[in-house]
Amino acid sequence: MSASLGRRAVAELVGTAALVAVVVGSGIQATELSRDVGVQLLANSLATVFGLAVLITLFGPVSGAHFNPAVTLAAWFTGRKSGDGMTAREAAVYVPAQTLGAIGGAVLADAMFAEPLVKWSTHDRSAGHLWLGEIVATAGLVLLVFGLTGTDRAHLASAAVASYIGAAYWFTSSTSFANPAVTVGRAFTDTFAGIAPASVAPFIAAQLVGAAVGLGLVAVVFGRPAPAEPDAVVPHGETELAPSAP
């Protein structure tokens, strides 16, 4: 049997928490080891690339390894009429799980480095060019994910998605958050990877615009997106899992 919705939600929560712990924790470690901002960003991006690839490989067979409300909502949108893709109920479970996981991951990273468990970030990221960077980063991510699934190459997702995010750290002005849940989580830490709470809503708005642009690009480049299953990133339907305990 494939994983129940409850198990998939736990996988999304734990996976997103681990992703944010990697992003925030490596940022803290980098600032402790170097005062060079370029070196700090390099360390942060490399840790994110490796961590994301591992997490997609690990949790993909269970939940599809979205770890990202933008991807989840795009998967629901593409399948909303046919009934063959992600349902509204599944999306309504995934998104809160991802958001709670992201917050927990930030708190965990702070705890590991003896930082205040919750301290709102003072890192202001309010500027038009940063919002544009988020639109570009998220559009590219959605184009990649749904382009791979639409051409039966989802098995390449762990390497491809991680590589794209690593590159987008450097070629986008915003350092590629590209993820509403991660954006919320990073507001809870006043460290290298943080984002001020006042900057969160515009970033999320830009990410949602980027997701829409990405789906538009999928339709233009690959044809109208097919209804996306919940395994929008990594297929999980064939995986056999032990039944839940009574």
From TrEMBL:
It is found in: Cell membrane. GO terms for molecular function: water channel activity. It is a multi-pass membrane protein. One of its GO terms (cellular component) is plasma membrane. The chain crosses the membrane at residues 46-79, 91-109, 129-148, 192-222. Keywords: Cell membrane, Membrane, Transmembrane, Transmembrane helix, Transport. It comes from the Bacteria. PROSITE patterns: MIP. Its main location: membrane. Belongs to the MIP/aquaporin (TC 1.A.8) family. This is Glycerol uptake facilitator (Major Intrinsic Protein Family). It comes from Streptomyces mirabilis. The lineage of its organism: Bacteria, Bacillati, Actinomycetota, Actinomycetes, Kitasatosporales.
